[in-house]
Automatic annotation (TrEMBL):
A Pfam family assignment: Cytochrom_C
Keyword terms: Electron transport, Heme, Iron, Metal-binding, Transport
Keyword Transport attributed: yes
Gene Ontology MF annotations: electron transfer activity; heme binding; metal ion binding
Organism of this sequence: Ardenticatena maritima
TM region positions: none
Top-level taxon of origin: Bacteria
Gene3D superfamilies with a match to the protein in the record: Cytochrome c-like domain
InterPro entries: Cyt_c-like_dom (IPR009056), Cyt_c-like_dom_sf (IPR036909), Cytochrome_c550/c551-like (IPR051811)
Protein known as: Cytochrome c domain-containing protein
Residues covered by the Cytochrome c domain: 43-152, 173-286
Keyword presence, Electron transport: yes
Amino acid sequence: MSMVRVQITLGILLTIVGLLVVAWVGVNEPKRMEEATASWEARRIEYGAELFERNCTSCHGVDAQGTPGLAPPLNSRELLEQRAAEMGWPGDAFGYIVKTVEGGRLISSRPDQYVGNMPKGDMAMPPWGEQFGGPLTQFDIENIALFLLNFEEFTPEQQAMIEAAQQTEAGGEEAAGGEASLEERAVQIMVNNGCGGCHTIQGVAGMVGAVGPELTKIGAVAAERIADPNYAGEATTPEEYIHESIVNPNAFVVEGFPANVMPQNFGETLSEEDINTLVEYLSSLK
């Protein structure tokens, strides 16, 4: 075989190999791109979750479950889409979330349910977009929107059923391994009722709010509140003060904090056992 024929044969073989490689890449590229896109979106959702935790949980609660009387839950795509439609938003839920977070909300659209920051004299929800003087970039806000829309798997009702099942399971474990401690029971009550969206207890997961007074040493601070000349309640002991603060929060509003933010009906929605558990636990914080 002449050298020319060898070169021609090698050229044909290389061409065939090249075509096979191109074909293989063409067949697998869509899948690779899909996996790469999914991976990138997952990272954005994770980053959005971090941003939400740092900036939004004080009002909208841990896991976006909302804070009664203060800010609504955001943990359902169905809920968000419904809200966008109610507000007359012409686009999708993603765009509604982005624009709401960017510009904030001047007044609450549901003041009978959620007051936002209005008692402080501020906007119901402050603007978060940097173009409106906020701290977040467009990319940040879009990531938060992706995070919230990732809740589509469960509606609030389904989430409540899951949490109830988890509590039942936890109760069974406690029965098998011993009764839950006072702190565990009290913290569970506070988590279930969104207390961490407004109040802080240092060292307690989820209790990171700043809308209401800090409770880290409320067992000691309660006596000082009773002695305050402006105190108009009826409590004479720290335990009575804490009980009063739960069932009648407007009896004494700590200076610098708004009235009418804490729900007024905990005396009806909480059992006497739950209230007593909270009083006993909070009284021990000194």
